[in-house]
Amino acid sequence: MHAPSLSDRTIDAYTDVTGQDRLERLRSLAGTLSESRILHVNSTATGGGVAELLRSIVPLCNDLGVDTDWLVMDATDDFFEVTKAMHNALQGDGPSLTEEMKATYRTVNEENARELEDEGEYDLIVIHDPQPLGMLDHLEATMPTVPIVWRCHIDLTDPTEEYLAFVSEYTKRVDHAIFSRSGYIGDTAVPGTSIIYPSIDPVTEKNRSLDAETVSAACDRLDPLSFENPVVTQISRFDPWKDQFGTLEAYRRASEDVSNLQLALVGGMAGDDPEGLELYEQVAEEAAADPDVHVLTDLPDTGVNVLQRESDVVVQKSLREGFGLVVSEALWKRTPVVGSNVGGIPLQIVDGETGYLVDPDDATGAGERVVDLLEDDDRRTKFGENAREHVRERFLLPRQLEELLDVIVAQRHPDQR
């Protein structure tokens, strides 16, 4: 296992985006945990929403006085092939689960769990998503009194039963589980649950306000994409569930009514996702014949910020979605979003007020909603203003951190519930 390098953060940086009462509540919760040592474990340091959240949460906890570490699993390609199949199957579509796959999963988790013995004692461990759950076999023997919290970031509304049964062998042994929506709990075996919506960090390079010079320079670097003509953007990992091909279809429908329309399909490859490069190449090949479609990968955070800020409409055409924080990222920048009515997306988009919701398989409808926004500047501006306030109230990091610390306090100090 290895610890990613992290930048320093201070809770004082959030004074302008959240209420003083919440900041004081955070300090109070942190004071209760001042003698605790907390560990977060996940499977990748880059390329996904979990890693992005931990890059903010972990240093902020330390700034608040809560001794917090983050360790990332070291694993083989075979392991990530298994866990990607697991991810897909838990969202409803995956191959049969073989004994060989189970053995690979258990072996790698055992190896990583053994490395924890060199890290000293922890008072609570947060395991993110299914990949590190197999560490429980070893942790129960070596740290039997340490509470284990499982943080599930994926959509479990329609899982493949054999995979859910395999995962439930572990989840029933954790002390508490956190889901992003109540509907995700389903038949998952867990002893106790909390619902915590994910959030965006408004002070990071990806989400902070930018001066005109920075915006202009970033736009120049995105050439030949031109912001003098309408731009529609989708920013997602290259993953089949994100449906970049459906977004292409929606763009083609919108192009029938909007001249000079451009599409930016932007994404990265998560370190634990072996399908990413293959799908990127397929999307790039599909888009190659249209000079107004731009397939971009691994943009710096400032480039993503500018693209979400300067695009006329953002699309999130997911087929399944754990939460989809790129929606709130765009809304925070006053850009309306047309998104699928799946997962956490309808929690973020208020249909007809901050954007539009469409059925996940309705590319034509998505294209028509894009046209509705592109042809009405006043509506687009009004939606953008509504969007900013909606995210401010519900989906900024201090709220999520407060709710997470509430759970940790309850597990560390159950007498204070």
Automatic annotation (TrEMBL):
> Which parts pass through the membrane?
none
Q: Which residues form the Trehalose synthase N-terminal domain?
A: 40-185
Swiss-Prot/TrEMBL keywords: Carbohydrate metabolism, Glucose metabolism, Glycosyltransferase, Transferase
Record keyword Glycosyltransferase present: yes
Pfam families documented for this protein:
Glycos_transf_1, TreT_GT1
Q: Name one GO biological process term.
A: glucose metabolic process
Entry's InterPro entries? Answer: Glyco_trans_1, Trehalose_Metab_GTase, TreT_GT1
Which Gene3D superfamilies does the record associate with it? Glycogen Phosphorylase B
Q: Name one GO molecular function term.
A: glycosyltransferase activity
Domain Glycosyl transferase family, by residue range, is 229-389
Family recorded in the similarity comment: Belongs to the glycosyltransferase group 1 family. Glycosyltransferase 4 subfamily.
Assembly behavior? Homodimer.
* Entry-linked PANTHER family: SYNTHASE (CCG-9), PUTATIVE (AFU_ORTHOLOGUE AFUA_3G12100)-RELATED
Q: What is this protein called?
A: Glycosyltransferase
Q: Which organism is it from?
A: Natrialba swarupiae
